[in-house]
UniProtKB/TrEMBL annotation:
This is TatD related DNase. A divalent metal cation 2 binds at residues 134, 159. InterPro entries: DNase_TatD-rel_CS (IPR018228), Metal_Hydrolase (IPR032466), TatD-like (IPR001130). Keywords: Hydrolase, Metal-binding.
């Protein structure tokens, strides 16, 4: 069963793993591996230690677009060191996020996000790593920059997708090894738009993810999200695609191996 768990340090993992196993077992599921995504300065080195100490945890490293101001020379060097690990299976999350969070927050502005997105895409290509894309409310610029840098056969995971169906279909057409990730959002009561997107994504281009600690599915919305909740996401996806739960697991397990090699 493919799972994504992000930003959990060593001190968190033992308790979390037990909770994951309990929840998954209750739904006749089993967690084979985890992908821990470190996309800021605080989580980078703890995640590196985590993947080194646990054989079934793999990593991805980068600077998230909202924290593009953290992309210093030192940060770049640390990211490249982490990505060089045999347990690092991707570079990301990278991309663009133009969501308006209001005056309370001071996230990186679009010009800086774009510059850092370009730099990190180039590193991923040079290092031959799959790319994990974070994009929100930035469809034209994301598409333009991806077309500029990413070859049509490159492995790409567009994670926690919440944008338009037209954008999703354009991505799938443009990159033949691109996969779109869906989270517990598909179970929310106000998820009609994203469920319509999901319905249009072929099963051989679909990934499951938690985006933990956020995006817990119903009936656990508001709790810390973890891979033990994946069965709730799978059930909803199977209903939307009018197929069996087993079929969703089989497709997404194969897709995970294709893109990340795990």
């Amino acid at each position: 069963m493919p799972n994504i768990i992000k930003n959990m340090g060593l001190s968190d993992f033992s308790d979390l793993a037990a909770e994951v196993d309990r929840t998954a077992a209750a739904h006749n599921a089993r967690c084979e591996a985890f992908l821990s995504v470190a996309s800021d300065t605080e989580t980078r080195l703890p995640t590196l230690r985590l993947i080194q100490d646990h054989p079934n945890i793999y990593g991805s490293f980068a600077i998230h677009p909202l924290y593009a101001y953290e992309y210093t020379d030192q940060a770049e060097a640390e990211i490249l060191q982490c990505v060089a690990s045999p347990k690092a299976v991707a570079l990301g999350e990278i991309g663009l996020d133009y969501h308006d969070f209001g005056p309370k927050y001071s996230y990186a502005q679009p010009p800086l996000q774009q510059r850092i997105f370009r730099a990190q895409m180039q590193h991923a290509l040079r290092l031959q790593k799959p790319i994990i894309i974070h994009t929100r409310e930035a469809e034209p610029d994301t598409m333009s920059l991806m077309k500029e840098f990413i070859p049509p056969d490159w492995p790409v995971h567009v994670h926690c997708f919440t944008d338009s169906k037209e954008f999703a279909m354009s991505l799938v057409r443009e990159w033949r090894n691109l996969y779109i990730g869906f989270t517990g959002v598909v179970t929310f009561k106000n998820s009609k738009k994203i469920c319509d997107v999901l319905k249009g994504v072929p099963l051989d281009r679909l990934l499951l993810e938690t985006d933990g600690p956020f995006m817990s599915p119903e009936p656990y919305r508001g709790k810390v999200c973890h891979p033990g909740y994946v069965p709730f996401i799978v059930k909803k996806i199977s209903e939307i695609h009018q197929t069996s739960v087993l079929d969703i697991y089989q497709h997404t397990r194969l897709n995970t191996t294709r893109i990340f090699g795990i």
